Each structure stands twice: as C-alpha cells, then as structure tokens.
Amino acid sequence: MSAAFLQVRGLTRRWTPAAKPVFENVSFALERGEFVCIIGHSGCGKTTILNILAGLDEASAGEVIMDGREVSGPSLDRGVVFQGHALMPWLTVRRNIAFAVKSRWPDWNREKIGAHCQKYIDLVRLTGNEEKKPSALSGGMKQRVGIARAFAIQPKMLLLDEPFGALDALTRGAIQDELTSICAETRQTVFMITHDVDEAILLADKILLMTNGPQARIAEIVVNTLPRVRSRHDIHHHPHYYRLRNHLVDFLVHRSKLLQEGRDDESTDGQQPRVVMPGLADPGIAPGEAGERLPALKQVK
Ligand SMILES: Nc1ncnc2c1ncn2[C@@H]1O[C@H](COP(=O)(O)OP(=O)(O)OP(=O)(O)O)[C@@H](O)[C@H]1O
Ligand SMILES: [Mg+2]
Questions:
Q1: What is the pLDDT of residues 88-100, one digit of tens each?
Q2: Ligand 1 pocket test: which of 15, 57, 161, 209 has the largest number of ligand atoms within 8 Å of its C-beta?
Q3: Alpha carbon distance 63, 8 (integer Å)
Q4: Which of 11, 22, 38 to mutate to test the pocket of ligand 1 (most atoms within 8 A of CB)?
Q5: CA 232, CA 176: separation in Å to the nearest integer?
Q6: In degrees rounded to 5, what are phi and psi of residue 64?
Q7: Which residue's CA is the closest to the ligand 1 atom numbered 26?
C-alpha cells in the first residue's frame, strides 16, 4: 500500500525543556483528498499542531511528511487560514490576495492575477470591498479575506484554524457550501480546527478527538459514516447523525478530561488512537457499505 499523503508521526511540543509537553506522541495520517477536522478543548494544542503542519513552528520531537517530503518550513503548497486573520494591514483586500497569488505564480501578468483574485473575492462575497484595507473591515470580513487568500493559491493542502468562527450563520453556511464544492471538485486535502461539532459532522470524513492538555494526545479517530454528499438542511434526519453527534459531545463534556487523567482506558490501544464509527449501529458494517445501504441525502444549495 502506498504511503498516506500526510503522515504525522510522534509529534511532541514543549515550550521549555523542563515543562510538560503541551501534547505528546501525536500521530495520524491524511489521505489525498480527505477532509479531517480536529476537535478539543481550548489550549490543548490544536493551533500548535496546525502551525507545525504549516511549517511555521517546529516540533520538539516527531516528524511531518507531506507528499513524500518532510515539512521543514512554510511553503505555498500549504494554504493557511489563521485564527487571528494575519492580513497585511497596509494592503487592500485585493492586494493582500494578489501578494500571495504573485508569489505562487511569479510569471502571471497583472490581468491574469487580477482576474484570479476577483474570482476568489467574489467567492467569499467580498465583491465591492476590493480597495478597503483590513482596518475598514469587520472581523468576519477579515476572516473571509484570509479564506480567499488560502483558496486562491490552490495549495496541495488547506490548513484552516476555526475559519468560520467569526462569521454570521448565513455567510458561514454559504462558505461551508463553497468549501464543500471546491473540495469535491479539486479533491482538496483539508485539515481544519473547529469547536463546532455540527460543522465537523457536515464537512469532515474523519474527526480527530484531542484530550485536554498538558500532555494532550489524539484519543480517537472518529469516522464520519454519513454519505459524503451532505446538506446542512437535512443532515440531522440521517439515522447516524445523533449517534455521531452524541459521541462527539460526550467526548468534549466528559471523556476528554477522563482520558487526560488516565481514567478512561477504553479508548486507547497502546499509543495509537482508536478508530471508531459511532454512527453505525452494527460495528460489523464497513463505512463504505453503510454509505451504500443508507439513503443518500439530497444536496440542497
Ligand atoms: N509561543 C508560545 N509560547 C509558550 N506557550 C504557548 C505558545 N503558543 C501557545 N502556547 C501554549 O500552548 C498551549 C496550546 O496552545 P494552542 O494555541 O495550540 O491551543 P488551541 O488548542 O489552539 O486553543 P484554542 O482552542 O483556544 O485556540 C496553550 O496552553 C498556550 O498557552
Ligand atoms: Mg487555537
């Protein structure tokens, strides 16, 4: 079998040599085209993991291999949407995006760069705000510039740190739908941090559950057994939905703490996270088979 597109092995991060690590021995893999969400309490180390995947921070131990190469610094192969926007305050919306596009395709002329930027500005519904600087934008608008910039460089992998947190429900829904269709069209590989279990169920193929820190780890890999084509409007009618949702909420409310204290040994299989399919009533059914047997949900735009 060929190696996974992204391989994360034995990742540990401590801030000082004497301190307990924020997380340790974190290992997981992403296949090309897979959409993976990570969920865990505030401060457990999700952003730190994402920064290491982006090449913006270094692990104290362990390695990250993407597409056969070790990640050892930032690259335009990875598009990042940061929790805190990270826009250049002296540049307009258009120029913030154009800067990244120019770096990605240095041979493109002005017209081509302009048209490409406009496509992504329109996509995130910022049409008409092209010449504004970040100081003149709301939090949600800044977040959308970050999303447009990350999408516009068409990276091999998107790394999204709570990208929809600051958006109103309507815009969030619209951009979630766009993200889903871009991912379906381009087989984009995505690693996304979210605090929203419903968002994770809507978007993810797999959901990584992280225990509380310090010494946090990935306790479980939850396989989303709902059919891949999903809609916000009727996903909750699917028979797997509440089993999956209850499993995730139960983890956040109870088990993340018990696991950190070592009082829940059910979910561990040595150092490797256990793979679970809580949507399935019959654990003997593989997810592919389940998807085929269950009624497909309509996609409502
Ligand atoms: N540069 C740093 N130096 C020292 N400690 C840090 C640094 N960056 C983060 N930390 C600490 O590491 C821990 C993990 O931080 P991180 O930002 O990765 O958490 P998170 O899971 O993304 O949290 P949230 O859900 O609130 O965004 C926290 O305790 C934080 O205080
Ligand atoms: Mg964070």
A1: 999 999 999 999 9
A2: 15
A3: 6
A4: 22
A5: 9
A6: -125, 125
A7: 42
Cα 78 vs. chain centroid, distance in angstroms? 12
Share of the chain above pLDDT 70, in %: 90
Q: What is the Rg, in whole angstroms, of the alpha carbon atoms belonging to the chain? A: 20
Residue 170 has pLDDT above 90, yes or no: no
pLDDT over threshold 50, residue 294: no
pLDDT digits (tens, 9 = 90+) for 133-149: 999 998 888 989 999 99
* Residues whose beta carbon lies within 6 Å of some atom of ligand 1: 15, 22, 40, 42-48, 83
Query: Which pLDDT belongs to residue 129?
Result: 97
Residues 243-260 pLDDT 10s: 999 999 999 998 887 877
Q: Are strands 61-66 and 23-30 parallel, antiparallel or unpaired?
A: unpaired
User: 69: part of which helix (H) or strand (E)?
Assistant: strand 69-70
| Number of the ligand 1 atom closest to the C-alpha atom of 13 | 12
Give 137 Cα–ligand 2 centroid separation in angstroms: 22
Rounded to 10 deg, the angle between the 139-152 and 93-104 helix axes is 20
Helix (H) or strand (E) holding 24: strand 23-30
Q: Is the peptide bond before 214 cis (omega within 30 degrees of 0)?
A: yes
* CA–CA separation, 143 and 123 (whole Å): 13
> For ligand 1, what atom is nearest to the CA of residue 40?
21
Nearest residue by C-alpha to atom 29 in ligand 1:
43
